What we know:
The structure holds 2 protein chains of 2 kinds.
Chain A (H helix, E strand, L loop, with lengths): L2 H21 L5 H17 L12 H21 L5 H29 L6 H28 L13 H21 L3 H19 L7 H22 L3 H24 L4 H6 L23 H9 L3 E6 L1 H5 L3 H13 L3 E6 L9 H8 L7 E3 H4 L8 E5 L8 H4 L18 E6 L19 E5 L2 H14 L1
Helix pairs in contact in A: 1-2, 1-9, 4-5, 4-7, 4-8, 5-6, 5-7, 5-8, 6-7, 8-9, 11-17, 13-17
Chain B lengths: L4 H20 L7 H11 L3 H10 L4 H34 L1 H13 L1
Helix pairs in contact in B: 2-4, 3-4
Amino acid sequence: MPTWIQLVFLACGVCFILALKGLSGPKTARNGNLIGAAAAVVACIVPFFWTSLHLHHVPLILAAIVVGTIGGVYGARTVQMTQMPQMVALFNGVGGGAAALVALLELNSVIDAGGHDSWFNLAATAFTIVVGSVSFAGSLITFAKLQDLMTSRPVVFPGLPVLFGGAFLGAVVLAVLLVNDPRMWIGIVLGLLGLLIGVLLVLPVGGADVPIVISMLNAFTGLTVAAGGYVLSNVLLLIAGTLVGASGTFLTLLMARAMGRSVANILFGALKGGSTLGSGEASDRPVKSVTPEDAAIMLAYADRVIIVPGYGLAVAQAQHTLRELVDVLSARGIEVDYAIHPVAGRMPGHMNVLLAEAQVPYEQLREMDDINGDFKDTDVALVVGANDVVNPAARTTPSAPIYGMPILNADEARQVIFMKRSMRPGFAGIENELLFEERTSLLFGDAKDSMSKLLNAVKAL
Amino acid sequence: MILSESVVWLTIFVLSVFVGIEVISKVSSTLHTPLMSGANAIHGIILLGAIIVTGTTDNTVAVIVGLIAIVLASVNMVGGFVVTDRMLQMFVRKRPAKAAESDESKAA
């Protein structure tokens, strides 16, 4: 490899470090992302000017890049902000799939060259094939869960742990075989086993935990790319993949901590039968339902109101109307804040993105730890399209899948208004005791529709 | 003393692990989603590997598989950076108002 190319790759590696650094601060995030994008583009142009590589099939390669770019840009530009988590999962999955294919091709050329390679190189190849496939299949399942193409509840069947263990063991045995005697069929079977492991890994994960799994699979793909870099003797892939693998693993742990869960519990909790509590069905226990006019009076004559926004708000596209309502209430001298749970929406930080889109002032968005002490002095907690993040079962019911997750103390407010479409439980699939309490009123209907009625009723007072 | 090649690779790997953890250790939960998405785009660099393996083989099946890998990797890389930028635009939009406020307070 010519020295200039090695130096370009070094510079790109440094840019990726700066990109991650930038992305972790609000002021620098956008520039960080642009630095990363610029470095990636430069790195991918290099092979076309790398004369000693004698790159063949250039027109085909360029055409494939154009196809992928159009697909990527189209997906990224048209996706609704509410559906962004599954988009990230999808992008991650195809990256993992690409890494697995690259490793298979490299295996093919090693075999063509006589099948002699260092054992470590072959082990890294096997790792890339398996983990890349895990990431691909796992991400597709997370996509299906978030996109409601399949149930978001944990899917468990009796033989699952045995099948999973068998697939895992089989992959290890085949990887050892591959190291001793590289053959193409072993590589392909490894890829298929990887796909099976990926599916089995994600099926038992409940909907509320899927974001953490996306982050974990993201780290997996990073490590896959790092191993691929070793196999291809490409230092930039090694650096970039390792950076993502390490930061992704750390981010996964941070997110799990924000939800008060361990990663092991998220992945394997359902296998122990931990989430049998969730029925996924609506209950017919009595609740107190109110009209928008009643709710308007409760809000308009309060001194302090806290809004708890959830995914349902975003799905109904009611965030703009909500902001108007808050403006009207503020104009009446009422102190109003938004309480943002770290995992409100479908991903940590997702709600901040959605409310920022509706131009809610940043100062009104208060994080959980900051606002939780305020609920006991609050007259009305208005819960819009949220459920699990205010479910007291997280504190009181050890058998609940969300047990241990820190929640917003909406139950400490003097009155709670839930705006809900129906009595169906939240994403975690469990009933919320708070709905049946004396102080709780329910305002049924589509969030956007109810919100406009509520807004008009408040204006009329 | 010259390091053996595998030790060089190991060194780069270990140091990158520490850098990867260190650079994001102070991230606020607000930015978890864009950070994950940005990191996701960075591993799209596998596109570079896909281009090299595809361009250095003449086996027809291998070329076809390689082209598929290139399409997938470019979706990952390009889509990843674009969607991250879209998310971050929303965080940036309100900053001018904030900056104006702090300017005013400075002026006062």
